[in-house]
């Protein structure tokens, strides 16, 4: 009979950011161990609050499934002598499996014939499997920071207080540190502090709800959002949406209870980002907006318990925020006493990266690169704004406000630039060069900020790769993956046409003085190639989310130096592969590629000589090809890749006839090489859009 499994780890308050990753680890390890033991089960749910991590597995089988395995023994030559009689090797093999020699069979492998046996492996009882699996699961959670308590050697995010491990109504023995498992859990620390005895795992969620704990993260989040909107409406405003803050607060409480407070309206003359950050970063308060989207002098704090004395509670929340806002006003007023331009030199005392120098040196590099990009993209008219904004772009890093709230870099630069009398275009560019900050963030709205942002990120990418600190695995301390994706988004979003490889070359040229003494590993690719390959990988991942991976690979294979053109080629090709007549076209191209790859290396370079054609089909193909090449060139120059593909597709009948009627590998050397050169030119025509050989034609036909 299937039974439910429950594991709960009770602890002192676990940091909010630890909870979801810990539950993912818990689920992964437990389900992997159950799968390895062939222990079938139903749905898996996780629960998490600041005081608990739990997993509930439905319908766990009584035992692992039986399986029959083929076991290989010694080689047949070693197992049997010349007369076919079993040797000691065969007897020992059979004895080890508790079989007779007669039960042995023979299996032919790539290495020869071996003695084999089919052995039935019985599934272990669920209780035994789960004891091992639960032990591995509770010790397999990885925290960014762990701690030890008492005199135990085990570490965990916070000291463990209790453990629950039940399979149906049976307790399973699990030990974590100095705590042994049982069937006792605990509800809300203040509202229901007493022990709760669980009979079965099915009682878990409802028992905790009765004890004022919403253990399911999704349900607790939904309850929090509903209460926040209701509180905001009652306060005469609307909630400022902040999904990240909602997620964080969800895992700070077990029972969310919003409380509406207020602050002195005179603080509304501070930049709204400052007020929001003051409330969010330190206090985890939610901001309220009026009907026009402007900040109200009100906030919502979330308590873990219902408030008995609302006024007393509010005074506490408001007192703390009052002090924070006073600090913010002090920083704001003090920072404005010194113009941004006077702070630039101080960047020379702030190290960006040990081998690549200070922020002042970085600014000087990407300012020059931004000017180069302005010329390359045809935005030379923005040069003066780019020059000034780039110079001031990092100056707010040495202000008191950004020192207190690093999240406000760029925001404060914009505000202080305006306060110092800088043009609005310069102030906006200082802010926008940080955009986009994430996958869902907006792009820069003007060229100056966009160009500076591109230059800043290219400098980081090229510099970090050049000193051998490229991202590896999940480690990306300089956020280069995000920087690369931001570059791609900006270039495509604003339609910038320039050579990516030339921009990388220029960035590396500007970095050259810092790279003079960098030693490279033997056989290591040059920084230029590493950076461009990194872009290729990001493009493949990004576009692979929307388009077929083989089509993406086909487009990238012929280049992505012009990112806008590459995207247009991808869009055009994606439409074509869905047509029923694409498979024959791809097959014809692959035939061209195969011949060129196999035979082209033995053919000297040069142009096709039409005078050497002897057969009518190759003459006809050359005529069609010459006409198509001219039209394809016109379409490509006009970014009309759909039109280019239409012209290329029109060559297919002539290509088919050529292969049917013409012997490419003719005995006459000059004739053979001329035909191979011709096929090379045809392949090059196709390659103006994509490498068709990368496309899985069978899949394309079914699309």
Report on the structure:
The chain is α+β, with helices and mostly antiparallel strands and 703 residues long. It has 4 domains: 3-63 and 125-211, Alpha-Beta Plaits; 217-308, no CATH class; 341-546; 568-694, Isoleucyl-tRNA Synthetase, Domain 1. It is 50% helix and 14% strand. It contains 27 helices and 18 strands. Strands 1, 2, 3, 7, 8, 9 and 10 form a 7-stranded mixed beta sheet that branches. Strands 13-15-16-14 form a 4-stranded antiparallel beta sheet, with helices on both faces. Strand 11 and strand 12 form a beta hairpin. Helix 23 (616-637) runs parallel beside helix 26 (669-686). The chain is flat and about 100 Å long. Mean pLDDT is 92; it is low at 699-703. Residues 587-688 form the DALR anticodon binding domain. It catalyses: tRNA(Gly) + glycine + ATP = glycyl-tRNA(Gly) + AMP + diphosphate. Its main location: cytoplasm. Keywords: Aminoacyl-tRNA synthetase, ATP-binding, Cytoplasm, Ligase, Nucleotide-binding, Protein biosynthesis. InterPro entries: DALR_anticod-bd (IPR008909), Gly-tRNA-synth_bsu (IPR015944), Gly-tRNA-synth_heterodimer (IPR006194).
Break the fold down into its secondary structure elements and pairings.
Elements: E1 3-11, H1 16-36, E2 44-49, E3 52-60, E4 67-75, H2 76-79, H3 88-96, E5 105-109, E6 112-121, H4 126-139, E7 160-167, E8 170-171, E9 175-176, E10 179-182, E11 184-186, E12 195-197, H5 204-210, H6 217-234, E13 238-239, H7 243-250, E14 257-262, H8 272-282, E15 286-289, E16 295-303, H9 310-335, H10 340-343, E17 351-353, E18 357-358, H11 359-376, H12 383-392, H13 400-404, H14 411-419, H15 424-432, H16 447-466, H17 480-494, H18 500-515, H19 527-544, H20 549-557, H21 563-576, H22 582-599, H23 616-637, H24 641-649, H25 652-661, H26 669-686, H27 697-702
Parallel strand pairs: 7-10
Antiparallel strand pairs: 1-3, 1-7, 2-3, 4-6, 5-6, 7-8, 9-10, 11-12, 13-15, 14-16, 15-16, 17-18
Helix pairs in contact: 1-4, 8-9, 11-12, 11-16, 11-18, 12-15, 12-16, 14-15, 15-16, 16-17, 16-18, 16-19, 17-19, 18-19, 19-20, 20-21, 22-26, 23-24, 23-25, 23-26
């Amino acid at each position: 009979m299937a039974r439910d499994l429950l594991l709960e780890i009770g602890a002192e308050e676990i940091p909010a950011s630890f909870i979801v990753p810990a539950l993912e680890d818990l689920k992964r390890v437990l389900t992997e161990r159950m799968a390895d033991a062939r222990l079938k089960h139903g749905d898996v749910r996780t629960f998490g609050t600041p005081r608990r991590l739990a997993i509930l597995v439905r319908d766990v089988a009584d035992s692992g499934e039986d399986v029959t395995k083929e076991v290989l023994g010694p080689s047949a030559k070693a197992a049997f002598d010349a007369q076919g009689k079993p040797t000691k090797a065969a007897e020992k093999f059979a004895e080890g499996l508790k079989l007779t020699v007669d039960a042995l069979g023979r299996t032919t492998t790539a290495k020869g014939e071996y003695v084999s046996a089919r052995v039935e492996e019985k599934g272990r009882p669920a209780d035994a499997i789960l004891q091992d699996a639960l032990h591995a699961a509770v010790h397999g959670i990885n925290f960014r920071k762990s701690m030890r308590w008492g005199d135990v050697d085990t570490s965990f995010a916070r000291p463990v207080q209790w453990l629950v491990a039940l399979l149906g109504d049976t307790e399973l023995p699990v030990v974590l540190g100095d705590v042994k498992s049982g069937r006792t859990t605990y509800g809300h620390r203040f509202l229901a502090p007493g022990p709760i005895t669980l009979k079965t795992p099915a009682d878990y969620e409802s028992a905790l709800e009765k004890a004022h704990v919403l253990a399911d993260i999704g349900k607790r989040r939904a309850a929090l959002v509903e209460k926040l909107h209701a509180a905001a409406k009652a306060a005469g405003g609307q909630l400022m949406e902040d999904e990240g803050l909602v997620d964080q607060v969800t895992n700070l409480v077990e029972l969310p209870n919003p409380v509406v407070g207020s602050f002195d309206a005179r603080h509304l003359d501070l930049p709204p980002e400052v007020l929001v950050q003051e409330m969010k970063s330190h206090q985890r308060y939610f901001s309220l907006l009026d009907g026009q989207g402007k900040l109200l002098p009100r906030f919502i704090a979330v308590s873990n318990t219902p408030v008995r004395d609302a006024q007393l509670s509010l005074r506490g929340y408001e007192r703390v925020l009052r002090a924070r806002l006073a600090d913010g006003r002090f920083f704001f007023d003090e920072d404005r006493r010194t113009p941004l331009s006077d702070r630039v030199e101080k960047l020379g005392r702030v190290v960006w990266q040990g081998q690549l120098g200070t922020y002042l040196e970085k600014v000087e590099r990407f300012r020059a690169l931004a000017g180069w990009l302005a010329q390359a993209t045809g935005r030379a008219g923005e040069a003066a704004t780019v020059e000034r904004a780039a110079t001031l772009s990092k100056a707010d890093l040495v202000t008191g406000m950004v020192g207190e709230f690093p999240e406000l870099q760029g925001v404060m630069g914009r505000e202080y630039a305006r306060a110092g009398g800088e043009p609005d275009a310069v102030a906006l560019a200082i802010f926008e060069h940080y955009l986009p900050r994430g996958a869902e963030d907006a792009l820069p709205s003007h060229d100056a900020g966009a160009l500076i942002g591109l230059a800043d990120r290219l400098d980081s990418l090229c510099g970090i790769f050049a000193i051998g600190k490229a991202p590896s695995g999940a480690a990306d301390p300089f956020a280069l993956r995000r920087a690369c994706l931001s570059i791609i988004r900006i270039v495509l979003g604003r339609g910038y046409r320039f050579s990516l490889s030339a921009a990388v070359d220029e960035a590396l040229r500007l970095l050259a003085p810092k790279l003079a003494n960098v030693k490279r590993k033997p056989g290591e690719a040059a920084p230029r190639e590493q950076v461009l390959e990194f872009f290729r990988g990001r493009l493949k991942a990004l576009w692979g989310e929307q388009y077929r991976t083989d089509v993406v690979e086909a487009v990238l294979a012929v280049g992505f130096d012009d990112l806008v053109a590459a995207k247009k080629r991808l869009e055009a090709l994606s439409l074509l592969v869905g047509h029923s007549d694409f498979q024959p076209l791809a097959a014809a191209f692959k035939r061209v590629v195969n011949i060129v790859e196999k035979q082209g290396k033995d053919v000297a370079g040069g142009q096709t000589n039409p005078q050497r054609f002897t057969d009518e089909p190759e003459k006809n193909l050359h005529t069609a090809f010459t006409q198509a090449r001219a039209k394809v060139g016109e379409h490509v120059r006009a970014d009309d890749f759909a039109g280019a593909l239409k012209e290329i597709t029109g060559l297919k009948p002539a290509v088919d006839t050529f292969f049917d009627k013409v012997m490419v590998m003719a005995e006459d050397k000059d004739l053979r090489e001329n035909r191979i050169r011709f096929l090379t030119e045809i392949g090059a025509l196709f390659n103006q859009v994509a490498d068709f050989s990368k496309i899985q034609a069978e899949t394309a036909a079914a699309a």
